[in-house]
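Hi again,

Forgot to attach this to my earlier email, sorry! This is the prediction with zinc ion bound. I've pasted everything inline since the attachment limit keeps bouncing my files.
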Amino acid sequence: MRNKKERNSETAKMKTSRYLVSLLFLLFPLSQSSALAADSLKLQEVTDDVYAIVGDLGNRAAENLGNNATFGFIVTSAGVVLIDSGGTYKGAREIHRLIKGVTDQPITTVINTGGQDHRWLGNGYFKEQGAKIVASRKAVEDQKARAQDQFIMLGNLVGDEGVKGTIAVYAEQMFDDKLSFELGGVIFELSHSGQAHTPGDSFVWLPQKSVMFTGDIVYTQRMPGVGSQSNSKSWIEVYKSMAAYKPEHIVPGHGQVTDLATANADTYDYLVFLRKSVSSFMEDGGDIVDIGSVDQSNFHYLLNHETLAGRNAQQVFIELEWE
Ligand SMILES: [Zn+2]
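Structure tokens for the complex follow:
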């Protein structure tokens, strides 16, 4: 859990940023404010007709409309497939704005790679555009279980104005472990191989392009978050099943487009290290109240380590007690 001081300082930051955003709404017409939100998303070309949309590496905030993650899309001759719909209705509209800068093709399919807010709470917007939404059955179960908590959290971090219009819309097509389809000559292979950062995480493989969209299974540049919805042991196995495809390009769930070596270093190595360190801490008779003493400095190059490292160790401690 975060301590009170951190929460207070986050609340103070939140208030300041909310104040600034309100001020901007007063000073500038709407188009200016939209430009501000769009600026937090960066378009990256992965390979022919495949793109990533890279959002903020920090937390959800009014400025990013809950889009603090990486998304992706594939342009085919029969329409666009979007990987993850963003954290809010307005956030989804910003994602669409970037896509419209690349192609006039409609978005026919949206894949939710997991149950975390930024993977699916933009579904309502894309459903209005006529898209079909696809997700693993476990992801939809997770979304249903956590929707209310996610709305409360987004209200606190993004604010009511940013969340406006967002409703819970669930996938109409679900799969248990595998689903393949073809659109405009492009083959998509979806796999859910177990719980990772969230219970229903899945990855999306484009065999013809050697591109892997990993959702929250891979984080780069920032520290992965192991929460109560995660399972670090199974996450490592899921990671291995993804890595077995030996993708040339990886579009992670958080961070810029990357390669397998970087994904290994920033996610796989970290998870293995964390479990090993916490496990030896426990073998030495360490108590959970001293969990902060587990040295994670080798991974301090990853953003957000100040807020996540201790919490991750604590979560793994709890997991290991039950294994
Ligand atoms: Zn995420």
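Residues 4-27 form the longest helix (24 residues). Residues 225 and 308 are 6 Å apart (CA to CA).

That should be everything now.

G.
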